[in-house]
Amino acid sequence: MGARRASKDTDRRIGRRALIVGGVAAAAGSAVLARDELGRLWWRVPGVEKPRKDGEVDYTGARWVAASDANWRRADRPDDYGIEMVVVHVTQGSFDSAVKAFQDPSHGAASHYIVRKDGHISQMIRELDVAYHAGNRDYNERSVGIEHAGFVDRPQDFTDEMYEASARLTARICARYDIPVDREHIIGHVEVPGTDHTDPGPHWDWDRYMRLVRQARTAKA
């Protein structure tokens, strides 16, 4: 499951940072730096906000269930942060317990999606926003997190329905952001630098999963 509060993405004081960076950029005459910062931050100026609809999902097969806004950061991806990866997680608990945790503001973490054993998918954070799921700010900003209900030491939790539904979801995300379907761009939480998590664990069948993602990606092409 996504890293807890101790390792969450904590940079929310962007207003003052933007002013400081803007001032330094102007003083140094660094047009490149200023342009980069403005490209990421302009939409956060009061009165400027990307249009959103309550309950809207990015994946048509998903049901919207909102995470606590303490567990994610509003963004404008991929315009401000390019989406380059999918991170696979396992909840280390039931589907319902994961939903409850992600709706708890004290939890300090949440993923964009949760996949249930029967293949049901809930989306809890929009893909354009940064979810606190990987325990690494850079990876959070550049990835979509997908949780899978179950335990890493219970291979029976990873059902056919779960693999197939998750693969279709990952294939759609890869198609939307032109992410290569390979193990450098579809990774496990354990592979995120600095994390102490082991999911999705030794029983997650990566060969099977990647084959299903490729099949679904080809079908969508």
Automatic annotation (TrEMBL):
Reaction(s) this enzyme catalyzes, per UniProt: Hydrolyzes the link between N-acetylmuramoyl residues and L-amino acid residues in certain cell-wall glycopeptides
Organism per entry: Streptomyces violarus
PANTHER family membership: N-ACETYLMURAMOYL-L-ALANINE AMIDASE AMID
UniProt keyword terms in alphabetical order: Cell wall biogenesis/degradation, Hydrolase
Classification via Gene3D superfamilies: Peptidoglycan recognition protein-like (3.40.80.10)
EC numbers: 3.5.1.28
Domain N-acetylmuramoyl-L-alanine amidase as annotated: residue spans: 72-201
CDD domains cross-referenced by the UniProt entry: PGRP (cd06583)
Keyword GTP-binding set for record: no
Domain of life (superkingdom): Bacteria
Coiled-coil regions, chain positions: none
Any Gene Ontology biological process: cell wall organization
Keyword Cell wall biogenesis/degradation: yes
Listed GO MF terms: N-acetylmuramoyl-L-alanine amidase activity
InterPro entries: Amidase/PGRP_sf (IPR036505), Amidase_domain (IPR002502), NAMLAA_amidase_2 (IPR051206)
Official protein name in the record: N-acetylmuramoyl-L-alanine amidase
